[in-house]
Amino acid sequence: MIFITNNCDETVNLGRNFGRLLKKGYIVGLIGELSAGKTHFIKGIAKSLNINEEITSPTFTIVNEYYGDFKLNHFDFYRLKNEEELYNIGFDEYIFSDSISVIEWINLMPLCIPKDYIMVKINIINENKREISIEGIGNIDISFLGELKL
User: Fold this and answer.
1) pTM for the whole thing?
2) Is residue 30 a contact partner of residue 58, using CB atoms and an 8 Å limit?
3) Cα separation of 111 and 80, whole Å?
4) What is the rounded distance in angstroms from the CA atom of residue 45 to the CA atom of residue 71?
5) From CA 75, how far away is CA 58, in angstroms rounded?
6) How many alpha carbons lie under 13 Å from residue 19 in its C-beta half-sphere?
7) Which of 23, 75, 108, 117 is spaced 20 to 30 Å from 97 by Cα?
8) Exposure letters 7-39 (e unless 16+ CB within 10 A, then b)
9) pLDDT digit string (tens) for 76-95?
């Protein structure tokens, strides 16, 4: 699935509509350059879960936890040096739970991630416009996203 967003608000809105379709236990990986809009997309997911806290990227803390209709674990792998840092925070307990886990820069720690997850790639087209592709990795069937709209 490929979507084009024309501004940050549309990226947040796509994230919100995407988040409404997620179920407990889902893992979502995000890839995109710096300032591509990964955190904006996650802000939309958080809105769909009725999370009222300010969503910020956990670049220096590795994970932020948010509570709404479901618990949301928001990871950022950008500054990780090795897999051990993830295991020291109990990464497996986070992602193999009833929480929804969203991981920015999922491609940086490929040995740590489960084989089945949803991949969201955000490509910068220009200053405001983004191409956002969503695909199932492993045995994830994303047909439930069939009704996903901007």
Assistant:
1) 0.94
2) no
3) 13
4) 11
5) 6
6) 27
7) 108
8) eeebbbbbbbbbbeebeeebbbbbbbeeebbbb
9) 999 998 999 998 999 999 99
Phi, psi of 144 (to 5 degrees): -65, -15
Phi, psi of 43, deg, nearest 5 = -60, -40
- A 10 A CB-CB count for 123 gives 16
Tokens linked to 138 = 């492993």
Q: Supply the Cα-derived Rg of the chain in whole angstroms.
A: 14
Distance CA 15, CA 43 (A): 7
Residue with tokens 């089945």: 116
Residue type for position 139: N
Query: Collapsing DSSP states into helix, strand and coil, what is residue 147?
Result: helix
Tell me the three state secondary structure of residue 2.
Answer: strand
Expressed in angstroms, the distance from the first to the final Cα of the chain is 12
